[in-house]
Write a structure and sequence with these properties.
four-stranded antiparallel beta sheet; 4 domains; alpha+beta; GMP Synthetase, Chain A, domain 3
Length: 405
């Protein structure tokens, strides 16, 4: 069985790349791809092409390789050097952009040994690679059975075959240290290959497996996010989010990475706000901060004396609060919070809108048909009331006549 995707096109049994420069939206090309915005810029006279390329393997695994004077494009399937044997991957980046990426990743080719690209993958290499990819699910389920058999506290989340089939890498997660020496022996005897166990974190596991987040979109870690920065609860506090771990945690069980996305904008907005513990000194008493609307720049204060005025909140603007703080720094007491809140309420009253509709009719239902059902019902009710009155009068007359007799 052959699987043809956008990055493995097989016209006339010749492997070629999709030549979309990372802009296609099919198959696995959208998995942590990078748009090469320098691909259409020609090289200067006498300038040579950058000798390194970036190769993407299954899911989030990428690495840099020496081009070995091969004419490679984004999407080409290549056979690259491995620790033992060779591996099959897809070229994800070429040219000057690789140099910038290596600088960003702090990858120095002079200090580290860079592996080489052997050749463009042949049809035989691609067929073998695809057959190994089809075996991965079956191998994963069998390995999980061995884990249950040995009663190990670990979870095998993903399996990856090397391109030539000489090695299988098992990615697992575990909270504590696990002794899996007997497990490796059983797996090597079962699959007749070299076994490598690689422990990953819960974030890396979510990135490899993928999924849909609470926002309704694909997980950021499985589509474009490559570096996992530490996320703390202080980011949620700055954004005034409730510290509910069921809502703040992602599918990996850790805090959501998107808590850091808007943190800088919140910190910039909070630069003009006073400290949270700063109290306002007024003639009526001290007031403490209860609530803050960062982007609308509103603050709610309440008096410290809970018995009398602690339940009432007074809405103030940021300018008014800074004015009161400046007065307190000059050892002066401001008036009561009620005065400032009433002034703010007067400022928020919008003037009456003098706009008139061009048609001269502002009713939303002006195009609806008039339904005279209510009038008919009234007429029916009147008729029914008349008939009921006539019947009751006739009954009364008959009763009176019988009584006379």
């Amino acid at each position: 069985m052959k699987i043809e995707t956008c990055d493995i096109q097989i016209p006339d049994k010749k492997p070629v790349g999709c030549s979309k420069i990372g802009t296609c939206d099919m198959g696995s090309c959208t998995k942590l791809t990078t748009f090469d915005w320098l691909y259409d810029i020609p090289l200067a006279t006498g300038e040579k092409l950058f000798p390194y390329v970036e190769v993407r393997f299954k899911n989030s695994r990428k690495s840099f390789y020496h081009r070995n004077d091969l004419d490679l494009n984004v999407g080409d399937v290549v056979a690259v050097e491995a620790a033992s044997g060779h591996d099959i991957g897809v070229v994800s980046m070429v040219g000057k952009l690789v140099k910038l990426q290596m600088k960003k990743k702090k990858f120095d080719p002079d200090e580290k040994e860079v592996l080489k690209v052997y050749r463009k993958a042949s049809q035989k290499d691609i067929d073998k690679w695809q057959s190994l990819r089809l075996k991965e699910e079956e191998v994963k389920y069998k390995s999980r059975e061995y884990v249950i058999k040995h009663n190990l506290q670990m979870k095998i989340s993903d399996v990856e075959f090397q391109g030539d089939g000489t090695k299988v890498t098992f990615y697992y997660t575990a909270e504590n240290r696990v002794d899996f020496r007997q497990l490796i022996k059983d797996l090597a005897r079962e699959f007749s290959t070299r076994i490598e166990m690689r422990q990953i974190g819960y974030r890396q596991e979510a990135a490899r497996l993928g999924g849909i987040g609470s926002c309704g979109r694909e997980l950021c870690c499985s589509t474009w996010l490559t570096d996992f920065r530490s996320v703390s609860t202080t980011a949620a506090k700055y954004q005034q989010l409730s510290l509910n771990m069921q809502k703040l945690a992602g599918q990996c069980g850790k805090l959501k990475c998107c808590l850091n996305f808007e943190l800088d904008s919140y910190l910039d907005a909070l630069a003009d706000f006073p400290e949270h513990n700063r109290q306002l000194i007024t003639e009526k008493g001290n007031a403490k901060l209860i609530k803050t609307d960062i982007f609308k720049k509103y603050l709610w204060y309440a008096y410290v004396d809970v018995e009398e005025n602690g339940n009432t909140w007074h809405k103030l603007s940021l300018e008014q609060v800074n004015e009161i703080i400046e007065m307190n720094d000059n050892e002066k007491k401001a008036g009561s919070l009620e005065e400032y809140s009433t002034d703010l309420a007067m400022q928020e009253i919008l003037p009456e809108d003098d706009f008139e509709n061009v048609v001269g009719q502002d009713n939303i239902n002006r195009f609806d048909e008039v339904k005279p059902r209510k009038k008919k019902r009234k007429k029916r009710r009147k008729k029914n009331s008349k008939t009921t009155n006539q019947k009751s009068s006739r009954k009364n007359e008959n009763r009176n006549g019988k009584n006379k007799k």
